[in-house]
Specification:
It comes from Eubacterium plexicaudatum ASF492. By secondary structure, the protein is of the alpha/beta class. The chain folds into 3 domains: 98 residues; 144 residues, no CATH class; 42 residues. It is 56% helix and 11% strand. It has a 6-stranded mixed beta sheet with strand order 1-2-3-4-6-5, with helices on both faces. The radius of gyration is 25 Å and the shape is extended.
């Protein structure tokens, strides 16, 4: 009997993982983060926040290299751009803390360089040394900092700090007392979280988030110009999350029915005891299922 529940658990976990991956890919291109920084003027503000010493940078000196190719084996990073043909900057926005972001960034960086060499017609199989922009890696964390580090590295987080042949280091950016574009985005996310706690996943939460942020001068220009688009983006995220939850509930219910069906056919337990193992099914459902099995017997 324990094997029945192990099999059921594996099935539900696999289905849940698959639908989450599908939803993640569907929503990635429609996030507020991407919508915000697809605009070159805001991308320039982000770059100048990271490099205030570069006073001559313009929108034309920035080239978007965010991975979008659907043939890249599910690689979809949040933001990538090259500045002045010298820096390749990758930025990931995270609401949940995980050092696994370092692994993903390593893969994003490799793919970004691969695409860069293709765009610049450089062949790294030939003897001539290729030219490549210096990498800079950032993680924007929209949760609370707590005791989390300002920098994370592959060697420290995964290999106990020993010297490794391939190192990945990323600077982590948290909420601060500045009013730069990055901090405004973090505050926007936190206001949004507060509003969803109050109003649930509703349009009220979205419109209140926009109103509060505009009042606080947080992304005011962006929200004023693209308020309708932001509402649409956030509501679509709500809709897709509800679809995902509904799918998972349906899958779990189907798994429970399959488990109950096997237990009824086995004939070792009464319906009352079976109900203890699969509480998601009502006694009425179990009786109906038993009747169906008896008819087919």
């Amino acid at each position: 009997m324990s094997q029945i529940f192990r099999n059921r658990g594996v099935k539900v976990q696999d289905d849940t993982k698959q639908i989450e991956e599908v939803m993640a890919k569907r929503t990635a291109k429609n996030s507020v983060f991407l919508d915000l920084f697809q605009n070159k003027s805001y991308l320039l503000k982000l770059y100048k926040t990271l490099h205030p010493e570069d006073t001559t940078a313009t929108e034309d000196s920035l080239t978007d290299v965010t991975i979008t190719n659907v043939l890249t084996d599910n690689l979809y990073n949040d933001l990538g751009f090259i500045a002045n043909n010298k820096l390749m900057i990758l930025v990931e926005a995270q609401s949940t803390w995980t050092v696994n972001i370092l692994v993903r960034v390593l893969l994003y960086l490799a793919q970004s360089y691969h695409e860069y060499f293709q765009r610049t017609s450089q062949d790294y199989y030939k003897s001539r040394k290729v030219k490549m922009p210096k990498p800079e890696l950032y993680v924007i964390f929209t949760g609370n900092k707590g005791r989390k580090p300002d920098k994370i590295s592959l060697s420290k987080e995964f290999f106990e700090g020993v010297d490794i042949d391939i190192e990945v280091k990323a600077k982590v950016i948290y909420e601060s007392d500045t009013d730069d574009i990055i901090n405004q985005y973090i505050i926007f996310c936190k206001v949004f979280n507060e509003q969803t706690k109050q109003h649930g996943m509703t349009q009220k939460a979205v419109t209140e988030t926009i109103r509060i942020c505009k009042d606080r001068n947080v992304l005011r220009e962006y929200l004023a110009q693209r308020e309708k688009e932001v509402v649409t983006i956030m509501m679509s995220l709500f809709d897709e999350e509800q679809i995902m939850k509904s799918f998972i509930r349906s899958e779990r219910h189907d798994a429970d029915r399959e488990t109950a069906e096997r237990m009824i056919k086995d004939g070792e337990l009464s319906l009352e005891k079976i109900a203890r193992y699969v509480p998601a099914l009502s006694m009425e459902e179990l009786k109906e299922l038993e009747a169906e099995i008896m008819q087919l017997a």
